[in-house]
Write a structure and sequence with these properties.
The strands form 5 sheets. Strands 3-4-5-6-1-8-13 form a 7-stranded antiparallel beta sheet. A two-stranded antiparallel ribbon has the order 2-7. A two-stranded antiparallel sheet has the order 9-10. It is α+β, with helices and mostly antiparallel strands. The chain is built from 8 helices and 15 strands. The radius of gyration is 17 Å and the shape is globular. It has one domain. Helix 3 packs across helix 6. Helix content is 28%, strand content 27%.
């Protein structure tokens, strides 16, 4: 990717020593990367339609042009770098409009975050020994360029509030690092809960106010009191 392009780098690293068995053989890790799953056709996910390749004998990689690049290492680490411009996370604007008003697409951001966590959930099952915990991280880069700043509007993209909102939440800095430790068991059983927690971290970084933080788009609170990104709300949503 261009070095000055706005990007989000999602990562997962095990908190304990582990590895994928027979990592460089043709097997489940390659299959998962080539077919990571999706909530709906043409959604915001980790699908690249690429063939997994071993790079420098260090990691397995798939990519989709300059918009998505996913790498998995033998030690269990996963890195997914995605464009945060009109080519991916800010979808719905042309390049000229994005340069003038770089608005993130709320649906794209939340759907991709859920799909990232669902991919992590698949991969954890192949780690041996299974780590007790995972360290999740999102690194935001080049959020400020020229006189413009990335911003988000914390409402569903098909809502009237999204299209007419006066309040925009701007990136506070050109770069930021968000961290979220989580238990491997929770990642395996409830990636939707972990995704909600990650989205909340992103909203915090953009300094979204408390009222809007209580109503994160495409989320639901279950009877157990846990809030989660609701894939049914995403599947049935309309893009911007």
């Amino acid at each position: 990717m261009k070095s000055d392009r706005p990007t989000f780098l999602y990562s997962m690293t095990p908190s304990d020593r582990t590895s994928y068995q027979r990592f460089f053989e043709l097997g489940p890790i390659k299959t998962i990367l080539e077919n990571p799953g999706q909530l709906r056709p043409s959604g915001w996910d980790l699908t690249t339609r690429d063939r997994a390749r071993i790079i420098d004998g260090k990691y397995v990689e798939v990519k989709s042009a300059e918009r998505k690049r996913i790498r998995v290492y033998e030690d269990g680490s996963l890195f997914a770098r995605v464009a945060a411009d009109d080519d991916f996370l800010a979808w719905g604007q042309n390049s000229k409009n994005f340069q003038a008003a770089p608005r993130l697409n709320t649906l794209a951001l939340i759907e991709f975050t859920l799909n990232f966590c669902k991919l992590c959930s698949q991969l954890v099952a192949y780690m041996f020994p299974e780590p007790k915990g995972l360290n999740l991280k999102i690194q935001i880069r080049n959020a400020v360029f020229g006189t413009a700043r990335l911003f988000l509007i914390p409402y569903p993209v098909s809502s009237y509030a999204y299209t007419t909102a006066i309040q925009h939440y701007f990136a506070p800095d050109s770069k930021g690092t968000l961290k979220l430790p989580t238990a491997s068991e929770q990642m395996k059983s409830r990636p939707d809960v972990v995704a909600y927690q990650l989205v909340r971290q992103i909203f915090y970084w953009f300094e979204v106010n408390e009222m809007d933080l209580r109503n994160i788009p495409y989320s639901t609170t279950g009877q157990d009191g846990l809030s989660f990104i609701d894939e049914d709300l995403i599947i049935n949503s309309r893009g911007s």
